[in-house]
Amino acid sequence: MKKFRLPIVLAAGLLLASAAAIFALPKWDSRNERMEEKVEEEKRPFVKKLNIRRPDGMPNPFLPFQKDFKPEHLQSAVQTAEENGRIRLDISVQNISSAPVRLQFPTSQRYDFLIFGEKGEPLYRWSEGKAFLQVINEVELEAGGRLSFTAYWDGKRKNGKKAEKGKYLVKVIITAKAKTSEGKTVDSRELSATGRFSLP
Question: Domain 74-199's class?
Answer without folding.
Answer: mainly beta
